[in-house]
Amino acid sequence: MVRSSTTHLLTVILTSGNHDSAIRLGFGAELTETAGIHLRTSVTAVADPVVLHDVHGPVGVYGLPYLVPDAVRDYLGADRSHESVLRAATSRLLADSRERGLERVVVMAHAFVTGSESAAVSESERDLRVGGIADSPASALDGPAYVALGHLHRPQDVRLTGSSTVVRYSGSPLAFSFSEKDDVKSVSLVDIDAAGRVSISEETTPVPRRLREVRGRLEDLLDDPALEHLATSWLKVTLTDPSRPLAAMERLQRRFPHTLVIDFDPDDARVSTSDDLSRLASTSDPV
Fold first, then answer.
1. From the centroid of its chain, how far is CA 116?
2. CB atoms < 10 A from the CB of 165, how many?
3. By the 8 A CB rule, do 208 and 188 touch?
4. Per residue in 39-72, pLDDT tens?
């Protein structure tokens, strides 16, 4: 069935990501569709578009949830890799768009997709390598006019050589880890003309509170008047005291109410066996 959003002031299309429970998010999907909120959380819906209309005619929007290869490869007839399942899903939705006569196609996909350059990742994206292949080349999604990607938190284009398909991560509208503290957050506004040509502009999103990091001994941080500006920021504090201070979080939050994280890195600490093992665990690659 072709769905149209012409009766709604705003149409929302949501796909499930690798952090989500697809079953929970997809509960009540048929009910929310009546309000213009379209949930795409199952592999069985990859060829079920939401059809929008503008002055140039219809646009088919296909939602690809995060596809775990082992969970979907039998349904899609794919191999055990992210690239294979994405290629199979894209092939299905493009075949569906041709049957419906949709000349302009948009795909929303939650995946780690790479082009000719390294993707800019941050600490808050979950590592997908264990149990499967980490990423997929953008060529697996070739064919639509525009591919709107989710997973990476920094806005970035993904190069797809020799293709008219535009592939882009819009990034997250807010920071989700302190590794993103210097990022400029935005949303992407995408225009598609009658011929399917894509133009993109970025709108900076308002940030209610900046993320900041500060390092030093607890008493120095509490007494330094030059740090007063940190009181309005989300804060990560690295304490360098020789021994761990008592009630450090409570004391910090009295001066800096939005302190979220405390790390402990003593300036002159002796390295114990437990410290050495802890550092090894934090730096070793599980793969």
1. 20
2. 20
3. no
4. 999 999 999 999 999 999 999 999 999 999 999 9
Query: Torsions phi, psi of 199, nearest 5?
Result: -130, 145
Main-chain phi, psi angles of 18, to 5 degrees: -70, -15
* DSSP code, position 252: H
Report the SS3 class of residue 230. Answer: helix
- What is the residue whose two structure tokens read 């800019």? 120
β-partners of residue 131 are none
- Among 49, 55, 64, 165, which Cα is nearest to 109's? 64
Q: How many CB atoms lie within 10 A of CB 108?
A: 20
Distance in angstroms between the alpha carbons of the first and the last residue of the chain = 44
Nearest to 121 by CA among 96, 79, 151: 151
Q: Which residues contact 283 (CB under 8 A, 6 or more apart)?
A: none
Alpha-carbon distance of 90 to 211, in angstroms, equals 38
Q: Which of 192, 44, 28, 167 is nearest to 107 (CA)?
A: 167
Q: Are strands 136-137 and 234-239 parallel, antiparallel or unpaired?
A: unpaired
> What is the residue-wise DSSP string for 130-147?
TTS-S-EEGGGG-SSSEE
- Residue 46 corresponds to which tokens in the numbers above? 């990859």
13, β-bridge pairs: 38
73 within 8 A of 85, measured Cβ to Cβ: yes
Per residue in 102-130, pLDDT (tens digit) is 999 999 999 999 874 445 665 555 555 44
Longest dimension (CA), the chain: 70
